[in-house]
Structure formats: C-alpha cells, structure tokens
Design goal:
By secondary structure, this protein is an alpha/beta fold. The chain has a single domain (2-141, 187-245), classed as Rossmann fold, CATH 3.40.50. Helix content is 33%, strand content 29%. The protein has 9 helices and 9 strands. The chain has helices at 9-18, 22-39, 53-58, 72-81, 118-127, 145-149, 189-198, 213-216, 237-245; strands at residues 43-47, 64-68, 87-90, 103-109, 129-140, 163-171, 174-186, 201-209, 228-235. The strands form 2 sheets. Strands 3-2-1-4-5-9-8 form a 7-stranded mixed sheet, with helices on both faces. A two-stranded antiparallel sheet has the order 6-7. Helix 5 (118-127) links the parallel strand 4 and strand 5 (129-140). The chain starts with 8 loop residues before the first helix and ends with a helix. It binds S-adenosylmethionine. S-adenosylmethionine binds next to loops.
Length: 246
C-alpha cells in the first residue's frame, strides 16, 4: 500500500537533506555511487525511489535514468528533488510500469521488505532486465532486524515465518520524529532466494552491511550485527528462453 508513505515524504526529505539519515548519507549513498562507478551502466531504473534523492545523485553517472514511485506524497517531493537532473520520473508501481527497453542497472532501495506481493514485484523487475543487467536491492537484514527494531514481540516472531505488520520507526539522529503506520514484512532470507530463482534470477553477490568503525561511531552506538543486506542478481535471458522452449 504505497499511499501509506504519502504523509512522510516531507519528513524524509528533511532527514535526507539535513544528513540526519546517516544510513542514507553515510552508508548507502556512497555504496551506490561506488556501484555505478564500478558497473558503469548506461541506463538505470530505480524502483520505489521515494523522495528521488538517490536517483538524482546517481543520474550524473548514467545516460538514461528512470525512477518510479507510486506514493502521491513521495512522487510530489521527488518531482522537486529531480528538477534539473536527467531523471525521468513516473508515478507507478513496479507492477504497472511498462518499458520498451531494458536497463543495465535496476536498483530498489529499502522497498522489497514492504511490497504487498513479493512474487509480482520480482516478476515485474525481471521484465526490466537484459542479458547484461544487474538487479541490486537492499533490505533490512531479516536475520537481525527484529532484534534491532523489535517490531514483532517474541511471542509472534519466528524467523522462518512470513509476517507483516504496520510499524513505526525513527532515524537515530531524529529520534522524536516518528514515521508510523507503514508496512513491514519479515521474510526469511530463503524466501527472497526462492522467489528470485523462480523468476530466472541468479544471485551473483550478497553483502551484509556493516560500516567501518568511524561511520558506526556517528550513530553513537556500535553495530553488533549487520542491520541491512544487499542482493545482486542477474538473469541469463538466453538460458531462460531455452528453458521455456524445451
Ligand atoms: C521505505 S520507502 C524507500 C524509499 C527510497 N527508496 C528511499 O530509500 O528513501 C519505500 C518506498 O517503496 C514504494 N513502494 C511500495 N510498493 C511499491 C511498488 N509495488 N513498486 C514501486 N515502489 C513501491 C513506497 O511508495 C515507498 O516510497
């Protein structure tokens, strides 16, 4: 339900632009900038771009940049944020975006843990993939995130069980501003691997996000486990075609 993000777009904009969202500015923005420098994609699509800051930052490194975002509130902020960049923005869910072209790099940052239907979402992303494409997405680390945020009480939580809930959270540097009533789904890692495989993806990398001590110290407390993880997946379209033909 992307409309649940509408009311939080302005807050997210301030948190990102002020640098209060440390995870965005100190951990993931540098991570994705390094990624585009390494992969040198010609074309990029960001799926669930929120306020548009990531796409705008990465757009200098690519020729074609598309960003899709279904929440009306997020979309209107993103419209302002991308102004003057080459980002083409569409107010759509991944499942509703149709493109004639494929993209070299597909990024989806902190989205898959809250999509209504993981299978449909990943099946849609598969349509954006060509033979050389990379799909890179980050999510809260399913093994550790509940220990960190305590979204689910011990009585309801079981690592192997898929669970969805409306949650509230704040960022470390802006603890009094609550983002509430947004969806969060816990799924075991194997669920992500299973669905990716089902739609023809293979995982080429899997990273557990654990910043250097100097970045951790900005949070005021050390990280005791990786709070996030990043999947890198590809599709061999030729072998997919062969599989379908046989
Ligand atoms: C936690 S926010 C992350 C936004 C942005 N990527 C960021 O990191 O700041 C999740 C975003 O995913 C969007 N979203 C939810 N379902 C989606 C879908 N099916 N397709 C594309 N975006 C979706 C929401 O509207 C929301 O803006």
């Amino acid at each position: 339900m992307p409309n649940r993000w509408d009311d939080f777009a302005s807050i997210r904009r301030v948190q990102i632009e002020s640098g209060n969202d440390l995870t965005f500015s100190k951990v993931f923005l540098p991570y994705y900038v390094d990624l585009v420098k390494e992969l040198r994609p010609e074309s990029l699509i960001e799926v669930g771009c929120g306020t548009g800051h990531l796409s705008t930052n990465l757009s200098n490194h690519v020729n074609t940049s598309v960003a899709i975002e279904p929440s009306e509130g997020m979309y209107s902020v993103a419209e302002q944020v991308i102004e003057g960049s080459c980002v083409q923005l569409f107010r759509l869910r991944a499942e509703d975006y149709r493109s004639e072209r494929t993209f070299d790099l597909i990024i989806s940052h902190m989205v898959l843990q809250l999509v209504d239907n993981l299978e449909l979402f990943i099946a849609s992303v598969a349509q954006f993939m060509g033979n050389q494409s990379h799909f890179v997405f980050a999510i809260p680390h399913p093994c550790f995130y509940n220990e960190y945020k305590k979204f689910f009480a011990p009585s309801e939580y079981h690592y192997m069980k898929e669970l969805t809930k409306s949650v509230s959270f704040a960022v470390t540097k802006d603890p009094n501003t609550k983002i509430s009533g947004v969806p969060y789904s816990h799924r075991p890692l194997s669920r992500y691997f299973f669905v990716l495989k089902k739609y023809g993806f293979h995982i080429v990398d899997f990273e557990e996000t654990f910043p250097k001590p100097e970045i951790q110290s900005l949070y005021g407390t050390d990280w005791t486990f990786p709070r996030y993880c990043v999947f890198h997946a590809r599709i061999d379209k030729d072998s997919e075609k062969l599989k379908k033909a046989n």
